[in-house]
Design brief:
It is built from 3 helices and 5 strands, in the order αβααββββ. It is an alpha+beta fold.
Length: 104
């Protein structure tokens, strides 16, 4: 995934919000602005280059001292970012850095 092109797509509003993502965001109290901020300024903590139809990644970012994760894909042909889901990571699934998955 070309991180710089994804950032440009987000900044220019070339974002497709998947229905699942919007439903989860409403349920979890996560705004579109928070998601855009994580995508623009957060870091990729997991990369999924083989995802179809487009490669995706798990982004991690801190907004107002709270951790957030966003899974997004980027279509390099259309240069559109697809937001798949967003959530607030918890210590049950992640280490205290909220980036490292706990071993099962």
């Amino acid at each position: 995934m070309d991180r710089d092109k994804l950032r440009v797509a987000v900044e220019n509003g070339y974002i497709e919000w998947q229905k699942h993502a919007l439903e989860q965001m409403i349920e979890r109290g996560i705004t579109r602005e928070t998601v855009k901020e994580v995508l623009s300024h957060g870091e990729i903590i997991e990369d999924y280059p083989d995802d179809k139809p487009s490669p995706s990644a798990l982004f991690s970012g801190w907004i107002k001292s709270k951790p957030f994760h966003v899974v997004a894909a980027f279509d390099s042909l259309t240069e559109v970012c697809f937001v798949i889901t967003a959530y607030k990571p918890d210590l049950e699934h992640f280490e205290s850095d909220y980036k490292t998955r706990r071993k099962k």
